[in-house]
Amino acid sequence: MDQDNLRAIATLLVFITFISLSISVFRKSRKNYFEDAALLPFADDDIERKRKPATKDVENHNE
User: Fold this and answer.
1) In Å, how far are 24, 38, 41 from 29, measured between CA atoms?
2) Domain encompassing residue 23
3) CA–CA separation, 21 and 39 (whole Å)
4) Number of structural domains, the chain?
5) What is the residue-level pLDDT of the chain in tens, covering all 63 positions?
6) How far apart are CA 58 and CA 51, in angstroms?
7) Number of other CB atoms surrounding residue 58 within 10 Å
8) What Cα–Cα distance (Å) separates residue 9 from each residue in 17, 30, 54?
9) Taking a C-beta distance cutoff of 8 angstroms, is the pair 30, 24 a contact?
10) Predicted pLDDT at 3
11) pLDDT tens-digit map of 40-52
12) Model pTM greater than 0.90?
């Protein structure tokens, strides 16, 4: 095998991988998964909001 054949095979493998990932990402059955994943950065905010009132009550009792 010469270098041109290896490059052609590598290009073909990358192309097939790209098409496979594109199909996997854009399937309608994965929509709920990606909608939930899009909200993950805000998950910590909900936890912190729930904890903040509890810590303020404790601070007010100590004064």
Assistant:
1) 9, 16, 22
2) 3-62
3) 22
4) 1
5) 799 999 999 999 999 999 999 999 999 998 999 999 998 888 877 666 667 665 555 555 655
6) 11
7) 9
8) 12, 30, 61
9) yes
10) 94
11) 888 877 666 667 6
12) no
